[in-house]
C-alpha cells in the first residue's frame, strides 16, 4: 500500500508530526524515508523486508553501499544515498556531542558512537578516540585491522597519532565480530602495553571499549585498566 492511500491518521508523516517520532515503529520510520515501494512490494512491505535482511535498524545503518545496491528496490541511487546519509548524520551528531563536552560526562554516548562506527564490521578494527585536556573529542582514527594482538597493534603508531593530535588522553576501542564483548587475555595484554607506551609521553588511557552488535563493554568499568 502506498503512503498516500492510508487514512490520514495512519500516515507516518502525519503521525510523526502530531505524536512525535517515538510513536512510529522502525518500519514506519523507514517507510517514511523510502517514500515509495516497488511494483512487487508496497513501501511498508519493502521497509519490513529491508529491516529483516539487515537484522534491524542497526544492521541497516552499517550496511555498505554495495550491500544496499543488491536489495530489490534500492538499486537506484536516491534511496541508497538517503540511507547512507542517515548513518553519517547519526555519526556526526554523536561526534558533535563528544567534542562539545567532556567525554565521560556521557559514557553511553561514547559507547553509542563506537557502536555506530565499529560494531557491524565483518573484521576486527582497532581505533582510538584522541581527547584534549578537558577530555573532549579531538579525533577518532581507525588504526589497525585484522586479528588484534599485542604484536599486530603497534604501540609506536598509536603514540605517534596521539602526539600528532596533541592528545592528553585516549579511549581505545575495537570490535568483536564474533558478537561477544568479553575481553580476551590478548585484549588485556594489549591494553597494558599501550597504557605503558602512552604513559611515556604523558598521555593517559582512560578506557578500552569493546563493541559488538547491540552491546558494548568498558574495560575501565570492569576494573581492567
TrEMBL record:
Pfam families: RadC (PF04002), UPF0758_N (PF20582). Keywords: Hydrolase, Metal-binding, Metalloprotease, Protease, Zinc. Coiled coil: none annotated. Residues 103-225 form the MPN domain. Belongs to the UPF0758 family. This is DNA repair protein RadC. The gene is radC.
Amino acid at each position: 500500500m502506498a503512503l498516500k492511500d492510508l487514512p490520514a491518521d495512519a500516515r507516518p508523516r502525519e503521525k510523526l508530526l502530531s505524536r512525535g517520532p517515538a510513536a512510529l515503529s522502525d518500519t514506519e520510520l523507514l517507510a517514511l524515508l523510502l517514500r515509495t515501494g516497488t511494483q512487487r512490494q508496497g513501501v511498508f512491505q519493502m521497509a519490513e523486508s529491508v529491516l529483516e535482511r539487515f537484522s534491524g535498524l542497526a544492521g541497516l545503518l552499517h550496511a555498505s553501499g554495495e550491500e544496499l545496491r543488491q536489495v530489490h528496490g534500492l538499486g537506484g541511487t536516491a534511496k541508497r544515498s538517503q540511507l547512507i546519509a542517515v548513518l553519517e548524520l547519526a555519526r556526526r551528531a554523536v561526534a558533535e556531542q563528544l567534542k562539545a563536552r567532556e567525554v565521560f560526562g556521557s559514557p553511553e554516548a561514547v559507547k553509542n558512537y563506537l557502536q555506530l562506527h565499529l560494531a557491524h564490521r565483518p573484521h576486527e578494527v582497532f581505533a582510538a578516540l584522541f581527547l584534549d585536556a578537558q577530555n573532549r573529542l579531538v579525533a577518532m582514527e581507525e588504526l589497525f585491522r585484522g586479528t588484534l594482538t599485542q604484536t599486530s597493534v603497534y604501540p609506536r603508531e598509536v603514540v605517534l597519532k596521539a602526539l600528532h593530535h596533541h592528545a592528553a588522553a585516549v579511549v581505545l576501542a575495537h570490535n568483536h565480530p564474533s558478537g561477544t564483548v568479553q575481553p580476551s587475555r590478548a585484549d588485556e595484554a594489549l591494553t597494558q602495553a599501550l597504557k605503558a607506551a602512552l604513559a611515556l609521553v604523558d598521555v593517559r588511557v582512560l578506557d578500552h571499549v569493546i563493541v559488538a552488535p547491540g552491546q558494548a563493554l568498558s574495560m575501565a568499568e570492569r576494573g581492567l585498566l
